[in-house]
Specification:
The chain is mainly β and 200 residues long. The protein has one domain. Helix content is 0%, strand content 40%. It has a six-stranded mixed sheet with strand order 4-3-8-9-13-12, with no helix packed on it. Strands 14-10-1-7-15 form a five-stranded mixed sheet, with no helix packed on it. Strand 5 and strand 6 form a beta hairpin.
C-alpha cells in the first residue's frame, strides 16, 4: 500500500528544519539532512514540509511510503528544530476509513471527484459529519472561531516561551486510486514521484 504523508510545520520563524520522522508500527525512522530535507513548496513561505532529500533540491509536497499489504492505522511522529534552540513534536494518528484502493493521501485535494477527461474518479470525501483539520504543526498558539476550531488537536504549551512544543492529532482518511498522485491534472503540484517512495 502507498501512503502519501505531508509532515508540515506552520511557523513565522524562518530558521526551521526537520529533525526526523518516525512511522509506527513499521519501524521506519528517517533523519533530517540524511534521508529528508526541509522544503517550502507553497507560495505561503510560513509552511515548511519534510520531503525526501533529492539531488535537484526541489521542494516536494511530502513523502511516499510503500508498505506491505493493507493497513488500518499508523502513527507518524515528526520533530522540528525551531530557531536552532527548540525542538517541537507533531504526532499524528492516521486511521483508514476503507480498503477500496491501494493508496492513501492526507492531501484532501486528491479526494475530490473528477469528470471522465480528468480521470473519472468518484468522490472520496468522507461523511460531512466527520469534522477534522488537515494535519499541521503550529508553533504559535492562536484563537479559532467556533466554525474552524479543530476538534482533533491536543497541544502542549511551553508557557515560558509561548510556544506549542507538542501537538497530538488524529486524522481519518479514505483510500484513493494511485493514479491521482501522477495525473497531469495535478501537474502544478509538487507531489513526489512514485520512484521516490521509501519502500518497506
Amino acid at each position: 500500500m502507498l501512503l502519501h504523508l505531508q509532515p508540515r510545520l506552520y511557523s513565522p520563524f524562518k530558521n526551521v528544519a526537520i529533525v526526523d520522522v518516525t512511522i509506527e508500527p513499521f519501524g521506519l525512522r528517517l533523519a533530517g539532512g540524511v534521508d529528508l530535507a526541509t522544503g517550502r513548496p507553497y507560495p505561503n513561505n510560513h509552511y515548511a514540509v519534510a520531503c525526501r532529500k533529492n539531488k535537484t533540491r526541489k521542494a516536494l509536497e511530502g513523502l511516499l511510503i510503500e508498505v506491505p499489504g493493507p493497513v488500518d492505522e499508523w502513527r507518524m511522529t515528526a520533530r522540528w528544530s525551531v530557531e536552532a534552540e527548540c525542538v517541537v513534536t507533531h504526532r499524528v494518528d492516521y486511521k483508514l476509513l476503507d480498503h477500496d484502493f491501494d493508496t492513501a493521501s492526507e492531501n484532501q485535494m486528491l479526494w475530490y471527484a473528477a469528470c471522465a477527461e480528468l480521470g473519472g474518479w468518484s468522490n472520496r470525501w468522507p461523511s460531512p459529519d466527520l469534522r477534522q483539520s488537515r494535519p499541521v504543526m503550529e508553533v504559535l498558539p492562536r484563537e479559532y472561531s467556533e466554525r474552524e476550531k479543530p476538534v482533533t488537536y491536543r497541544d502542549t504549551l511551553d508557557v515560558e516561551r509561548g510556544l506549542i512544543v507538542e501537538r497530538c492529532q488524529t486524522f481519518r482518511l479514505p483510500t484513493i486510486e494511485r493514479g491521482r498522485l501522477t495525473h497531469p491534472r495535478f501537474r502544478g503540484c509538487r507531489f513526489p514521484p512514485l520512484e521516490a517512495a521509501f519502500r518497506l
